[in-house]
Amino acid sequence: MLGASLLGVKSTGGKGQIEGTCAGCSAVKKLQQLHEAIDRFFKGFEPRKRKWKALPGRYLSQPVLSLYHYQHLVLVWDLEDWMPLYTWWQTQTDKRGLDAAISYLQQEEERLRHGERVSHQQECALDGR
After folding, report:
1. Which end of the chain has less neighbouring CB within 10 Å, N or C?
2. Which residue, 13, 8, 45, is CA-closest to 29?
3. Are 66 and 73 in contact (CB under 8 A)?
């Protein structure tokens, strides 16, 4: 079953049945959850109870964004200097999420720092992506 899990196929139970899944679709959904967690942080909303959470914090009296994957602290992002102060990953999922979060924060810096409230999906729609 190892080969099947690498191909984005999962087992549905002990009867040997296999259900196909679109690995790209699930990856996009997971990135949307990550982007939503970061966007909710900057809009001042409470985090949802999901796999990814972005919470406010302080490190040496500087405001930071603390990003959690489940209960693991994966990223501490300095909101003044706009850079990572701490990164951690244990699994490949943690690493993909960490890389995606850093990339998203860097790409969306202007919008997030200066309070434009256009969502990433709205920007994509406007750009025709």
Report:
1. C
2. 8
3. yes
Tens-digit pLDDT profile for residues 23-73: 444 556 668 899 999 999 999 999 988 899 999 999 988 999 999 999 999
In angstroms, the CA 13 to CA 16 distance is 7
CA 23-29-13 angle, to 5 degrees, is 50
CB 53 within 8 A of CB 47: yes
**H helix runs in the chain, sequence order:** 2-6, 23-43, 92-107, 109-113, 120-127
Tokens 């992002």 sit at which residue?
A: 77
> How many angstroms separate the CA atoms of 85 and 113, rounded?
17
> Is residue 95's pLDDT more than 60?
yes
* CA–CA gap between residue 36 and residue 93 (Å, rounded): 17
